[in-house]
């Protein structure tokens, strides 16, 4: 009997997992890496951009811009990034539905290309407005990619590796932060002449994604459940798994397709109206808010002053700050390795509990730093420990929730909720942080500690464990939990008696 020729839908892949690994890298380098990178590179050229703003205004009007207006322009440059992220989060859901996961990430790089041009020529054009617009566009790019990247990877990974694959979003975020800190050093692109190139360097990861991602498959679940394309789904699965035998996984996706049959993609407000999604929505809102309100971003903002209090020379503080980003990167790798063994809930509980512990010690150290000589060093150690604890659980696990707790029809809208919460809270915390420092002084972290305690309690009591379960199993379990109270209604209640009498 002659062997049948190989079908183009049955690719021969030599190394199992190779395509999935390349997809993780391609999606991450132009996705959450961009978010972390653009979040950190803006710190290095702060003084240079403020001087450029003042010089530009003086060249236009013949008089210098007052200091408070220079600070206002600078605060707008910084805050336009999360504002753009909010717009991007609102775009992400419709883009994921109409274009698909992969094409959305590819199209999203248009914002990067335009922003890089604006950054690169802002100095020659003597226009700080170009910097403001570029930051807004990079925010839109980050808002889109931070929602679609974990959705794309979570839908493409096997259930045994889904948590680890989705955790790579946190790894690329931390990697982007560290790379931004390194590239922003004075010896590299953090000098007074090179800052336009520093801002425009976001073009490099964007180009890398544009070159690599088109060669990789689309999300198999999107191809079958949303598009109804069985052949394309089969080909994508075979590419991702590196084998022709994907029968069991195809059956799982087909069952999920059958359960979603006849249902359109949910709109944002419909998530809050559907009783069968109540527990998922509450978990998403509570834990996503906790991740942004736990104080990790504020620890980064406070790090410079604490390091200076500990006696680190001002010119060396930039190297110590690189250590903080490296801590988060290290723990993101650790979490990626252990998440499929210990589960999501355990990592969240442990992470928030440790953050509560270290945040308490940090508050005590700040309060006593003028009384005991060793307190600044204790505070510095707590900063590293706090960031390590954040990276263990909240940093990565929270981003998996929207993928695992919601089915295919509700997932894009769920990520829109995540994005709106993330960028709104990031904007509000950045805006209010200086006032919190002034009002609470050394007790700045007391509100953040309360959030960490609430996050640990909620994860322990109300969040279901999703480790090793299929999307359909998770959906059915949550459906039972959401309808528990309704099934407890006695069969002899008034409405049923009336209904039976009418019949």
Quick structural overview:
The chain is mostly helical and 503 residues long.
List the defining traits of the structure above.
503 residues, mainly alpha, 26 helices, 0% strand, globular
Q: Can you walk me through this structure?
A:
Residues 1-16 and 487-503 have low confidence and may be disordered. This protein has helices spanning 18-29, 32-40, 46-61, 67-98, 101-107, 109-122, 128-156, 162-183, 195-200, 203-212, 220-226, 230-241, 247-259, 268-273, 278-293, 296-309, 317-342, 344-368, 375-392, 394-397, 401-405, 411-440, 446-462, 471-482, 484-487, 494-502. 75% of the residues lie in helices and 0% in strands. The protein is mostly helical and 503 residues long. The longest helix is centred in the N-terminal third of the chain and has 32 residues, at 67-98.
The rough form would be described as: globular
Distance between the termini: 65 Å
Strand content: under 5%
Low-confidence stretches: 1-16, 487-503
Strand element count: 0
Mean pLDDT: 82
Kindly report the oligomeric state of this protein: single chain
What topology does this entry show?
Elements: H1 18-29, H2 32-40, H3 46-61, H4 67-98, H5 101-107, H6 109-122, H7 128-156, H8 162-183, H9 195-200, H10 203-212, H11 220-226, H12 230-241, H13 247-259, H14 268-273, H15 278-293, H16 296-309, H17 317-342, H18 344-368, H19 375-392, H20 394-397, H21 401-405, H22 411-440, H23 446-462, H24 471-482, H25 484-487, H26 494-502
Helix pairs in contact: 1-7, 1-10, 2-7, 2-8, 3-4, 4-5, 4-7, 4-22, 5-7, 6-7, 6-10, 7-8, 7-22, 8-17, 11-12, 11-13, 15-22, 15-23, 16-17, 16-19, 17-18, 17-19, 18-19, 18-23
């Amino acid at each position: 009997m002659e062997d049948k020729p190989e079908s183009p839908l049955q690719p021969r892949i030599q190394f199992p997992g190779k395509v999935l690994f390349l997809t993780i890298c391609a999606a991450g380098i132009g996705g959450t890496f961009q978010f972390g990178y653009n979040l950190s590179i803006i710190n290095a050229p702060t003084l240079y951009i403020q001087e450029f703003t003042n010089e530009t205004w003086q060249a236009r009007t013949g008089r210098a811009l007052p200091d408070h207006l220079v600070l206002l322009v600078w605060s707008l440059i910084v805050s336009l990034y999360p504002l753009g992220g909010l717009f991007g989060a609102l775009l992400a859901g419709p883009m994921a539905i109409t274009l698909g996961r992969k094409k959305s990430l590819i199209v999203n790089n248009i914002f990067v290309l335009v922003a890089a041009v604006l950054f690169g020529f802002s100095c020659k054009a003597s226009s700080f407005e170009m910097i403001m617009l570029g930051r807004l566009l990079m925010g839109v790019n980050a808002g889109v990619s931070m929602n679609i990247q974990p959705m794309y990877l979570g839908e493409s990974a096997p259930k045994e590796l889904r948590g680890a694959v989705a955790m790579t979003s946190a790894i690329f975020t931390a990697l982007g932060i560290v790379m931004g800190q390194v590239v922003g050093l004075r010896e590299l692109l953090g000098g007074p002449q090179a800052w336009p190139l520093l801002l425009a360097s976001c073009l490099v990861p964007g180009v890398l994604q544009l070159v690599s991602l088109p060669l990789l498959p689309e999300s198999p679940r999107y191809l079958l459940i949303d598009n109804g394309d069985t052949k394309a789904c089969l080909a994508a699965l075979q590419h991702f798994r590196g084998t022709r035998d994907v029968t069991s996984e195809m059956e799982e996706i087909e069952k999920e397709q059958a359960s979603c049959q006849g249902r359109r993609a949910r709109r944002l407000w419909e998530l809050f109206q559907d009783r069968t999604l109540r527990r998922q929505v509450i978990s998403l809102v509570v834990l996503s808010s906790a991740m942004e309100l736990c104080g990790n971003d504020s620890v980064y903002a406070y790090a410079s002053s604490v390091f200076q209090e500990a006696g680190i020379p001002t010119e060396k503080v930039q190297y110590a700050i690189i250590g903080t980003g490296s801590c988060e990167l290290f723990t993101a790798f650790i979490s990626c390795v252990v998440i499929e063994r210990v589960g999501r809930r355990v990592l969240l509980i442990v992470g928030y509990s440790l953050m509560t512990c270290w945040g308490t010690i940090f508050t005590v150290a700040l309060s006593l730093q003028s009384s005991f000589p060793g307190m600044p060093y204790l505070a510095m150690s707590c900063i590293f420990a706090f960031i390590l604890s954040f990276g263990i659980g909240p940093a990565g696990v929270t981003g998996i929730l929207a993928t695992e707790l919601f089915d295919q029809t509700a997932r894009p809208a769920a990520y829109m909720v995540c994005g709106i919460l993330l960028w709104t809270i990031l904007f509000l915390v950045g805006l209010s942080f200086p006032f919190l420092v002034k009002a609470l002084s050394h007790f700045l972290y007391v509100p953040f500690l309360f959030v960490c305690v609430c996050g640990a309690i909620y994860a322990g009591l109300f969040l279901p464990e999703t480790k090793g379960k299929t999307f359909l199993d998770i959906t059915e379990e949550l459906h039972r939990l959401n309808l528990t109270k309704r099934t407890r209604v006695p069969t002899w209640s008034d409405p049923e008696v009336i209904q039976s009498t009418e019949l």
